[in-house]
Amino acid sequence: METLEKDLSRDDQFQARIDADVRIEPKDWMPDAYRKTLIRQISQHAHSEIVGMLPEGNWITRAPSLKRKAILLAKVQDEAGHGLYLYSAAETLGASRDQMLADLHSGKAKYSSIFNYPTLSWADMGCVGWLVDGAAILNQVPLCRTSYGPYARAMVRVCKEESFHQRQGFEIMQTLCAGAPVQKEMAQEALNRWWWPTLMMFGPKDSESPNTEQSMKWRIKRFTNDELRQKFVDMMVPQAEFLGLTVPDEKAQWNEARQAYDFGEVDWNEFWSVVKGNGLCNHDRLQARVQAHEEGAWVLEAALAHAAKRAAREAVAA
Amino acid sequence: MTNWGPNNKSIMSQSEWPLWEVFIRSKQGLDHKHVGSLHAADATMAVQNARDVYTRRLEGVSIWVVESTHIHASNPDEAAEFFDPAADKVYRHPTFYTVPDSIKHM
Ligand SMILES: [Fe+2]
Ligand SMILES: [Fe+2]
Ligand SMILES: [Fe+2]
């Protein structure tokens, strides 16, 4: 009984700190549910960064110029870095790196469904940077002020690097749209495929998102899914117009009264189907991850053995 | 069915590389500052990995790495009592003292 009362007041104290915008640090007391929710959220985010390297990695060897190749390589390397910042943030909560990776590889842990779509043409590299990284930025910027210190700091680092990602993507689109008619068609065709999946990146509708309220209270989420989706559409429709492209949604119209764009309904059946593993690339992505992990396992083991051997030699010499 | 499910032994039996904390001097004349952590088999690899993970845009001119297990910290649950001795010593701050208006350069 006594511990229960103590815990209750601890919960209240904890919430008071969050309400006062005091950051929570790794060794501070926190409710179990806060810790678990964060581990899930941060590791899912980390997995998304790592799996997100695959659709773009697909084009590194086929980039149209050395300049584009160097840029794409740098971007994909950044995504690896983002995954690492985030995995280490999750580790400060007591999660183990091996366990997180095992959960990704077994399919128990999720990653962003957007990476289960294929990258079919060079214009997809434009759309991924412009739209997918654009959506990621909208999600991530508010998280720079999230209540958990290591997560917030990781997000600051990530956000600094993301704007280059978006700009290089937009530049690819701009170049294609200023090119020959076939290039512009390629850009439009890519936009047609990526538009709806990027709108899905913000997650289910608020009415279908039962955890949002608690997450907002803990400040590990700072805007609702629908708020972010609206912001995204408001940003992107004019950018598409600038490029001379059309978003594939007849309902995407400026609403003077709302001072915002109206837009059509996302195909939620498709959304849930991809989340459940039935997207075009779910199988390939996971298999590529597991294969890389297994084929690289000997390097992990050899490096450890080498370090142990050297430490032993140094101990003898000393 | 391919052999990459949850029961795959090679995934589960992996032993992790130790965790290292990374500190970076962003420019000459400034302190090293904690930036995050990473895994590496030894110190040399930790420094190289830290360069690749934390200084891809010239964020540093010097890197320190310390194995995380070697860091000892004050207890956050006792922070109030622990830092309390400094709380009532306002006279340690220059603003505690009134200087006559006519006195310059103090
Ligand atoms: Fe990223
Ligand atoms: Fe991201
Ligand atoms: Fe990115």
UniProtKB/TrEMBL annotation, chain A:
Q: Name one GO biological process term.
A: phenylacetate catabolic process
So which domain of life are we looking at?
Bacteria
> InterPro entries from the xrefs?
Aromatic_CoA_ox/epox (IPR052703), Ferritin-like (IPR012347), Ferritin-like_SF (IPR009078), PaaA (IPR011881), PaaA_PaaC (IPR007814)
Question: Which GO terms fall under molecular function for this chain's record?
Answer: phenylacetyl-CoA 1,2-epoxidase activity
Annotated Gene Ontology cellular components are: cytosol
Gene3D superfamilies this protein is in? 1.20.1260.10
Any Pfam family hit: PaaA_PaaC
Q: Which SUPFAM superfamilies match?
A: Ferritin-like (SSF47240)
Q: Which PANTHER family does this chain map to? A: 1,2-PHENYLACETYL-COA EPOXIDASE, SUBUNIT A, PHENYLACETIC ACID DEGRADATION PROTEIN PAA
Recorded protein name is 1,2-phenylacetyl-CoA epoxidase subunit A
Q: What is the lineage of its organism?
A: Bacteria, Pseudomonadati, Bacteroidota, Cytophagia, Cytophagales
